[in-house]
Specification:
heterotrimer, A mainly alpha (about 625), B mainly alpha (about 200), C alpha+beta (about 325), A: about 625 residues, mainly alpha, two-stranded antiparallel ribbon, 19 helices, C: about 325 residues, alpha+beta, three-stranded mixed beta sheet, 12 strands, binds heme-A, binds copper (II) ion
Chain lengths: ~625, ~200, ~325
């Protein structure tokens, strides 16, 4: 062995930077960055839609756009933000970070990972295709029946919704399975389940929620599709019932908000200890709170249906569950506060976003608890009070952490620090703009303003709140723009970040910025919850990496370990670049586009054949390395 | 680099491989999908105040579906034999087992087509929610049987090329798991759509 | 590391500004035609009280958390003694106190439930059927049996049962000053009780997204003294008076010979369709197009010629009539007291 371990690894893992590998890459870091960039692009699109909405609603009797355009705009805004921005954005962080945090060289199924990204992209483009043709979904993000039926919405609008979400669901499910297996099986030796970073706990819990919560939505969408296309009856017609859709949607929908929220708080639990320069307080409690939130989240969906006229007993049970779910959130909130209190905080941009997150999330959380109080919910449901709550928890509870995450990890991704004073400007613009936008909506709602109205009359006392909200939205947009520019500019001009600019405790800080293609030359051995603060062990890894002696699992491989104790159990041969994921995505896209036409079955048949060929090709190659035992 | 491997003997039989874990999770999400459909069935059934099945549709006849159930469930036995066989290195048992389960699965689908032609005389998916649920759920399951048959065929072809042996059989295990799952789901469907409605 | 530290004073100032900005927004007028905070019935008052209690609890929670966050971030680094574990804060702040608060919240929730429940059979003295339509409200009084639209008249101080249904998609009936909202779902009938303390006009609006004109699907609840209510009922129960003047008679001709008859009912004439609102006593109503424009001659003319301009997406098509025809039609419709 003439060369160093690191050299040899480089040779084994290098993906040539050609247009071909641009299409065939399976590197979790490249894929993660793609997720981040694509999702952020959808954020800007969804944000621009929101700005049009706010411009329309600024003054009474707004006539900037008509009702049809408005309905497509608010529907696409909600769908974009939930499905195409925040969920994939957090998957992007997960993709980039999880293998690094657990000390692996890639995700468990790298090609499935590439496939997940392509499907996400294709389904997003698919849904926006509807907007281009003026037939985007126009029935809101929860798409209630029977308005979604062919009798009331004959256009292709609802097909874009139904097919787009089934399509996207494939990506989300594939991603979730990949995260679970990576987190449970690819942790570096010694990283027992009780030493796992809290971000991993968060993704693990969210991914299990996806695996179990997405199917009701998919089932509902399949039923709606065949009802619209082939005249079946589930939500209308003889024997059908529109309330069935509501149950199916919200059995998905409520867990979904925690699917969004949990990874976001995982980011917070990663950032706060680093910037407080001490370990997270109550690690075990926070980890359990994460799991508890995901579990209880399956038992509260009826709180979205309190005005439907269901029996009071059942509403009471769901109200109680909705209140109980506060406790895990309370545990986390006070654990973050205690960590900062007991630490030596550095008020840099990531921490600012986290602290602001704590405050605005609690505001959103307490209005959630108000909704759990059935009579109050029956008064304000479907009003702007709900719009206020949902932005406090979604923007406050998830987008603030995303920004914290960007300021925290973009230096790891690009190797350059972001500009701190721009960061502060961005933070204050976002913090002020956010509150000015969404706080007044509480009041508008209490004053009787329903949501999803394309225009509103004067004389009901809503005027100041709507105007404030609109002004705030533009301030908010400016704040977001500052961060976007900051990231672009610092890629070229930023200060070099070094491996570990913040003194982080998790393993992503043990490798270069940006990390090498193989992530870790030597699979690290982990001895406590803060492997990167374990200087002795990391120095030893570094020495072995520049040495010439072969190390375990060298080559295009990574190590699998046991689920709980993280003892080595298997060496995995990792797959190389592959074009099959893209081909299979194309086949699926063909099937879904086909359903927009009258020849759906014929096109589906062609697509299915292509799909089978793709899957076959993909697996012909997987089978080969099975020899590795 | 062989020396590295010998130095570190990895692979514990007792641990699920990453692939198997992935398959189990896929099965979990599919199970949730079937559960959603079956729960929808009961939801609409209990919303219906009148008869179930509705006026003009007879309660399902149990004879043919029971035969189908026996056939489908028994197909899991040769599948298990195939899986267990290759783990002990027997390619013969693998191939025969796969073939038997393939034949049984196909028979199930043929009988289902026959059953459909009977049902369609009374009601179609467009008749009412009962018809819609019946055909959607059983049809969706039928599609899964078809998928499982394709996987079976794939393993059979690979086996024909001499691909699997005592040390290389993870795919067989995963396909077998899926096969058993598709069989198990049928038990739920049979109990809800047939037994409970008869 | 210390290069990262920010002088606290700057941050304090900025945070102070932000908080100072928000506070006044909070305590502003609660009044308004459609304000849940300006209740006009015992039921709505119970819900408003519930809100103020919830608000007070929440304000304290938010204030405590905000204060802790400020203290944690603004005190000098290293102020707290080393070795502080923080578990006590987590257990007390995150589990014990919230649990106690939640018990209180649950109890007051359950205590308020009766105010928002469906009325026990026999309690209501007036029953009204309200049927949601895209994008207006069909209002039926089973006793003595007549139909009107977009206005619900009730006697004051009397429990009134609304039985709500839908003919097409889901709507939601909401009169914030009188009661909670209740969904109108095809295939189901929901019941709520409303009542008003004093005579007055209470605006309501459709709260469930129902399509293009969802934003313009409002209605009025008009509470009158029982006497006046009884008078209104007997007037509504009658057919439309036959037109006396020439112009009006001509107008009736126009109405009956154009497309109007295909959709509308005017009791006492051959017009008996039920696609659109019953127009028998149209002139007695205050607004047109489900609360979209006041019922004036000008607006009525504008509505008939081009309802889509006034309320885009509603289900009434434009009609082309000659000037004189339109004037005659308006003369007629104005007689429908
Ligand atoms: C990230 C997303 C997210 C999160 C985290 C939450 C969190 C919560 N939500 Fe929210 N919710 C949404 C996203 C989210 N929600 C969305 C998108 C909608 C609208 C959907 C639509 O209609 O379009 C919605 C709507 C919604 C409704 C239906 C409203 C309606 O339409 O009528 C209800 C009803 O109960 C509800 C409840 C709750 C509760 C109880 C919590 C709890 O989890 C909150 C718990 C947290 C705290 C309470 C703060 C921290 C705790 C403490 C500091 C301890 C002390 C506190 C107390 C004792 C109060 N939410
Ligand atoms: C994560 C989720 C998320 C996020 C981040 C947002 C962000 C915003 N949302 Fe939205 N919203 C929802 C989720 C979200 N929303 C959901 C689920 C609904 C319900 C939908 C339904 O009813 O079906 C909803 C509904 C909703 C409504 C109610 C619509 C209605 O009921 O009729 C409104 C109204 O004001 C609104 C406003 C805004 C605004 C102003 C922002 C702002 O925060 C946006 C700020 C972002 C930008 C402005 C983009 C960035 C801008 C730039 C980078 C600069 C400009 C770019 C260039 C110059 C190129 N949202
Ligand atoms: Cu009717 Cu909204
Ligand atoms: Cu919820």
């Amino acid at each position: 062995m003439a060369t160093t371990v690191a050299r040899r690894m480089e040779r084994a893992w290098a993906e040539p930077r050609t247009w071909r590998t641009w299409l065939t890459t399976v590197d979790h870091k490249r894929i993660g960055v793609r997720y981040l960039v694509t999702a952020f692009t959808f954020f800007v699109l969804g944000g621009l839609e929101a700005l049009i909405i706010r411009a329309q609603l600024a003054l009474p009797d707004g006539r900037l756009v008509g009702p049809e355009a408005f309905n497509q705009l608010f529907s696409m805004h909600g769908i974009t933000m939930i499905f195409l921005f925040i969920t994939p954005m957090l998957s992007g962080f997960g993709n980039f970070l999880i293998p690094l945090m657990v000390g692996a060289r890639d995700m468990a199924f790298p090609r499935l990972n590439a496939f997940g990204y392509w499907v996400f992209l294709a389904s997003g483009v698919f849904m926006y295709g509807g907007l281009l043709f003026g037939v985007a979904p126009n029935n809101g993000w929860f798409n209630y029946a029977p308005l979604s039926g062919r009798a009331f919405t004959p256009g292709l609008n609802i097909e874009f919704y139904v097919l787009g979400l089934i399509f996207l669901g494939i990506s989300t499910t594939a991603g979730a399975i990949n995260f679970i297996v990576t987190i449970l099986k690819l942790r570096a030796p010694g990283m027992t389940i009780a030493r796992m970073p809290l971000f991993c706990w968060a993704l693990l819990a969210a991914s299990f929620s996806i695996v179990l919560a997405l199917p009701p939505l998919t089932a509902g969408n399949i039923m709606l599709l065949v009802e619209r296309r082939f005249g079946f009856h589930f939500f209308s017609g003889p024997g059908g019932d529109p309330v069935l859709w509501q149950h199916l949607f919200w059995i998905f929908g409520h867990p979904d908000v925690y699917i969004i929220f949990l990874p976001a708080v995982g980011i917070v639990s990663s950032v706060i200890p680093v910037f407080s320069r001490r370990p997270m307080v109550a690690y075990t409690w926070v980890a359990l709170a994460t799991v508890a939130t995901a579990v209880i989240g399956f038992g509260v969906w009826v709180h979205h249906m309190f005005a439907v006229g269901l029996p009071q007993i059942s509403m009471g049970l769901f109200a109680a569950a909705s209140m109980i779910i506060t406790i895990p959130s309370g545990v986390q909130v006070f654990a973050w506060i205690a960590t900062v209190l007991g630490g030596r905080p550095r008020l840099r941009t990531p921490l600012l976003f986290c602290l602001a997150f704590v405050v605005v999330f609690v505001i959103g959380g307490v209005t959630g608890v108000m909704f759990a109080s059935i009579p109050f919910d029956q008064q304000v449901t479907d009003s702007y009070f709900v719009v206020a709550h949902l932005h406090y928890v979604l923007f406050g509870g998830a987008v603030f952490p995303v920004f914290a995450g960007l300021y925290h990890w973009v230096p790891k991704i690009t190797g350059r620090l972001l500009n701190e004073s721009w960061g502060r400007w961005s933070f204050w613009l976002i913090f002020v703009g956010f509150n000015v936008t969404f706080f007044p909506m509480h009041i508008a709602g209490l004053l009787g303003m329903p949501r999803r109205v394309w225009t509103w009359p004067e004389g009901l006392g809503w005027d100041p709140y709507n105007l404030l909200a609109t002004v705030g939205a533009f301030v908010l947009a400016a704040g977001i723009l500052v961060t976007a520019v900051n990231i672009v500019v610092s890629r070229r001009r930023g200060e070099a970040a070094g491996d570990d600019p913040w003194g982080g405790d998790t393993l992503e800080w043990a490798v270069g910025s940006p990390p090498p293609e193989y992530d870790f030359a030597v699979i690290p051995d982990v001895r406590d919850r803060h492997p990167n603060w374990d200087r002795e062990a990391r120095l030893r890894d570094a020495e072995r990496a520049v040495g010439r002696t072969p190390v375990p699992a060298e080559g295009h491989r990574t190590v699998a370990t046991t689920v709980l104790d993280a003892e080595p159990s298997e060496i995995l041969e990792m797959p190389h670049e592959s074009g099959w994921p893209l081909l299979v995505t194309a086949a699926l896209a063909l099937i879904f586009v086909g359903f927009l036409t009258e020849a759906e079955l014929a096109v589906a048949a062609v697509g299915t054949i292509l799909f089978l060929v793709g899957v076959g090709g993909w697996h012909l190659r997987t089978d080969a390395p099975e020899t590795a035992r | 680099m062989g020396s590295v491997e010998r130095a570190e003997p990895f692979y514990r039989e007792s641990q699920p491989t990453t692939g198997t874990m992935g398959m189990l999770l896929f099965i979990l999400t599919e199970a949730a999908l079937f559960a959603s459909l079956i729960v929808s069935y009961f939801f609409l059934r209990f919303r219906a105040t009148a008869l179930w099945p509705p006026e003009g549709i007879e309660a399902p006849d149990l004879l043919l579906p029971s035969v189908m159930t026996v056939i489908l469930l028994s197909s899991s036995i040769p599948m298990h034999i195939a899986d267990a066989g290759i783990r002990r290195g027997s390619r013969g048992r693998l191939r025969v087992g796969l073939l038997c389960s393939f034949v049984l699965g196909t028979t199930f689908l043929v009988l289902q087509a026959f059953e459909y032609s009977e049902s369609l005389r009374q009601f179609t998916p467009q008749t009412n929610a009962y018809g819609s649920l019946f055909f959607l759920i059983t049809g969706f399951h039928g599609a899964h049987v078809l998928g499982a048959l394709l996987l079976n065929l794939w393993v059979q072809i690979q086996a024909g090329r001499g691909f699997y042996h005592g040390e290389r059989h993870a795919t067989v295990r995963n396909v077998a798991l899926y096969w058993h799952f598709v069989d198990a789901v049928w038990i739920a469907i049979f109990s809800s759509l047939y037994l409970a409605a008869a | 590391d210390e290069r990262n530290a920010d002088p606290p004073s700057r941050v304090t100032r900025r945070l102070g500004v932000a908080v100072g900005f928000l506070a006044p927004v909070l305590f502003v007028t609660c009044r308004g035609d459609q304000s849940a905070l300006d209740p006009a019935s015992p039921e709505a008052r119970d819900v408003a009280t519930l809100w103020w209690v919830l608000f007070a609890i929440s304000a304290v929670v938010v204030a405590v958390v905000t204060m802790l966050v400020l203290v944690a971030s603004l005190r000098r680094p290293r102020a707290l003694q080393r070795g502080w574990g923080g578990m006590g804060l987590v257990v007390v702040g995150g589990v014990i106190v919230p649990f106690l608060i939640l018990v209180v919240v649950f109890v007051i929730t359950v205590a308020t439930l009766p105010s928002v429940s469906a009325p026990p059979r026999g309690e209501a003295r007036v029953t009204v059927d309200v049927i949601g339509r895209q994008f207006w409200w069909e209002v039926r009084y089973p006793d003595p049996g007549f139909v009107t639209a977009n206005e619900i008249h009730i006697p004051t101080d009397t429990p009134v049962e609304l039985r709500v249904r839908s003919r097409d998609v889901i709507h939601s009936l909401w009169v914030p000053r009188l009661s909670r909202k209740i969904d109108m779902i095809p295939g189901r009938t929901n019941r709520i009780l409303i009542r008003a303390d004093a005579p007055g006009v209470y605006r309501g609006q459709c709260a469930e997204f129902c399509g293009l004109a969802h934003a313009q699907m409002a209605f009025l609840v008009i509470a009158e003294t029982p006497d006046r209510f009884a008078g209104w009922v007997s007037a509504q129960a009658g057919d439309a008076a036959a037109p006396v003047e020439d112009g009006a008679a001509q107008g009736q001709e126009v109405f009956l010979s154009s497309s109007c008859v295909a959709c509308h009912t005017i009791r006492g004439t051959e017009a008996t369709a039920a696609v659109g609102p019953d127009l028998t006593h149209l002139a007695g109503r205050r607004w047109l197009g489900a609360g979209t424009v006041p019922n004036t001659r000008g607006n009525l003319g504008g509505w008939i010629v081009d309802p889509q301009r006034i309320k885009p997406g509603n289900r009434m098509p434009p009609t082309s009539l000659s000037g004189p025809e339109l004037q005659a039609l308006l003369d007629y419709l104005e007689t429908l007291e």
